[in-house]
Amino acid sequence: MNFATVQYFVFFIVVFLIYWRLSRRMQNIFLLAASYFFYACWDWRFLSLIIVSTLNDYLCGMFIADTDSPRRRKTLLVISLVVNLGILGYFKYFNFFAGSFIGLADALGMHVSWTTARIILPVGISFYTFQSISYTVDIYRRQLLPTRSAIDFAAFVAFFPQLVAGPIVRAKEFVFQLKQKRHFSAENLQIGVTRFLTGYFKKAFVADSLAVYLVDPVFANPGDHTTGMLWLAMVAWTVQIYADFSGYSSMAIGSARMLGFEIPENFDFPYLSRNISEYWRRWHMTMSRFFRDYVYIGLGGNRRGTARSLLNIAVTTFVSGLWHGAGWTFVIWGWLHGLYIAVFHSMRKWRSRHGRYDENPRLPKIIAAWVLTQFAVCLALVLFRAPDFSTAWVYTKGLFYSAGQGTLEIPFLIWIAFASIIVDHIAGWIMEHRPQMKVRVPAFSRAVVYAAMIVFLYHAVPESVNPYIYFQF
Amino acid sequence: MENEEKKQKGDKTSRSPRFARQLFRAPVLLYMMIILLAAEFSVVAIAPLLVPDCRYLRLYLNARAEECTRKHLDGTDRYNIRCDLIGWRNRPNCTYRKWEVDEHGARTTHAYTTISTKPNRVMFMGSSMINGGPFVYTNETISALIEDSTIEAINFGTMRYSLDQVYLHYKNELNAYHPNILVVEIPGSPDKGLRNQYVLFRNRYAGDMPYLKPRFTLESDELVLVPVPPKEYHDSIFCSPELLRWLEQTDGYYNDFRAFKRFGHLPIANTLWYFYQKARNLYRLIMGDYRDMPLLEVLMARLVDLADKQGVAVTFIMMPDRTITAAAGWRKFLPDHYKRQLDMLESKGFDIIDGREVLRRSGIPFWKLYASDNQHYSPAGNLLLAEALKERLDKNSRKSPVLVEKN
């Protein structure tokens, strides 16, 4: 069930109406049932994976907390990780590693006979597995007490607004909310509806229009298009992936809010970033902090010298790339970002050491840094979108010289889509840098804007809804 | 007891202001609802009084319809050309992928003149179902599949033709080809399109065929022709109040456009209209809607009479789409209107081949018998119908020797 469909609207309205008539305990049971139903609408068979993952971490978490023996605690943590990563590894990476192994063996002149299995990737597996892992690891690190209610824990893992594409919520941010009595509030409803609407606008209008009219046709045959078209489509793709994923996150946050829950933000106007490190603090924030806290810091972070720090960055970005997709293009995309980060930090260190680090740069420098950062991000995203390296190479080459003569007729709607993301980021910049300019917009004016948005969406949204890009992860 | 009642009343009275207060804590939502309702009211009740119909027509038609209308009017459409008599016809000498039409406007495997070179000439008429459309090669059409040493087939099937157009086409032109036998397709819902003049009023999403067609009305059992609207109306299709006034009088589907003017623009009204239409269609599916059957029967009878005068036998072939042949889900439980309409027509003495029965009897999975659109027939489906048709023609020739026997 896709958020941007009539089925989801109907489902959510039914859940909303029943949910607010129940007691706290019944609310949690009902949420769990609704979440399992929501997931079963994709494929009921994979519900078993969520249940296995949930039971595993529920029991491991409880046993870890109940014992003081470090060895036993470690063993239990390892069991939890093996089960979670085993499921993830089999369903998401088996064919990738098997295929890569065969490819490598062939390249070395050895003949290996190994058939890859027909494995369906369960939707959202990367997200709920990470949530489960964070729960056990936090208990192991004594940062969290386990929840004794299996229903509450299962409801946390399977909470439908963020089940299939995040934000990746940590147990310590969410489980306590399940334990509290929740009261219906019109303010929450208002925030939820407006967040959902904004997210729907980004996903169903901006992302889907850019995909249909510009990105898909150009990326399908990059060699046939002019350099100008390739640049435009690259920028459009950068905007599309942001609108798609931040739109989804916004709808998830809005849905959760209407049910009385607060889940963390996932994006903070990433295209305002002036360096790559800042970009990763603003882009897919819940995933970035997961990799930072559980992989990078787990490996020792930057506390063990420059060489080790670089190695840790390489490992973290490798895992991050692989998390996004079981393909080498994703891995290289991750490493490319790792390289960006390493270069950025090394340069900053060098400049600090030589007294050249400018803490308050002037406008031309700021603009140059912004342009360079965005160009680096866009360029790396070509790898993320291209189905293989040869397409990515043709595309990247074409950005500097393309023999193709193909151009597309760009509908006016596309410019509205671009403009709306620019306005979105300008508003973000004002909120961040000029808080005194933040005028309190009257409720009536906001209502006019949202009503106009509904009418506009009703007419402008493409007829078919594309699946969310991040569902595949 | 009294105290309890008072308590309950007290609860109720204290609840309503609490709810109202709650609502006022969400002023954006409240204003948004008020604004949307006000907008809906203006669009449903006021706008149609102020906005010219032509504006609505432009909104009703999508960009594809607009583009295709221009092509149709310019004469640059790939498959069809405009015709003042029948509305449109196949573009002669048109070959595009699987689609092949000869210089006469027919889809045939061989060259021919008005005189047949074989003992029997079978002429096929109907819509793209009989023509095969872009889904099959010419040698996979029903007409090609019945050909042998004694039978020559000519296929004049034309996209989206209804029986009124078939009748006019045969009466005015195609009898000149002197067939022995006329095979006429009637769709699974046989009266489909008979009340229609502007294709897009019947099917808004058929944007690639935004054409105008003639139709007949029935007045005291007599057919009265409503011709294609005059060319000057047609030329200015997007800003022609005359055309809309004409269609208001003649097109049985004009009400759908009228409803669009009020309910087609904003979400609440449109959702309500959508559910109303669904309920209405369901009611018709359950109760049966046979309003246009008399018109269909008279048209079929006139066609048979006309052909009979020229010594031509007419066989009808009913070609349902996959939803009728292989009704799935809840549709299985609906009354079988297809059968009922077939029985009604057979009881009037028409010679009809039941396409559904032919397909069902074969035992071949339905997905193999239909093309990807689940409406047109695949080569396998066409072959089954061709065999059934041949069998029927043989049988008929034994009764009355229209078909010349093989040596």
Q: Alpha-carbon distance between the termini of chain A? A: 16 Å
- Radius of gyration of chain B, Cα only, in angstroms? 27 Å
What is the CA-atom radius of gyration of chain A, in angstroms? 23 Å
- How many strand segments of chain B? 11
What count of structural domains of chain A?
2
Helical percent range of chain A?
Answer: over 70%
Structure notes:
The complex is a heterodimer of chains A (473) and B (407). The mean pLDDT of chain A is 84. Chain A is mainly α and 473 residues long. In chain A, helix 3 (47-66) packs parallel to helix 5 and helix 6 (150-158) packs across helix 8 (171-179). Helix content of chain A is 71%, strand content 0%. Chain A folds into two domains: 21-181, no CATH class; 188-472, no CATH class. Chain A has helices spanning 6-19, 24-43, 47-66, 70-107, 125-140, 150-158, 160-163, 171-179, 186-220, 227-258, 276-282, 285-296, 305-324, 328-353, 363-385, 389-398, 412-433, 443-460. Chain A is globular. By secondary structure, chain B is an alpha/beta fold. Chain B has one domain: SGNH hydrolase (Rossmann fold, 3-Layer(aba) Sandwich), CATH 3.40.50.1110. Chain B is 49% helix and 13% strand. In chain B, the strands form four sheets. Chain B has a five-stranded parallel beta sheet, with helices on both faces. In chain B, strands 1-2 form a two-stranded antiparallel sheet. In chain B, helix 7 (163-172) packs parallel to helix 13, helix 11 (254-263) runs antiparallel to helix 12 (267-287) and helix 16 packs across helix 18. Chain B is globular and about 85 Å long. In chain B, 36% of the residues are buried. At the A-B interface, helix 9 and helix 18 of A face helix 1 and helix 2 of B.
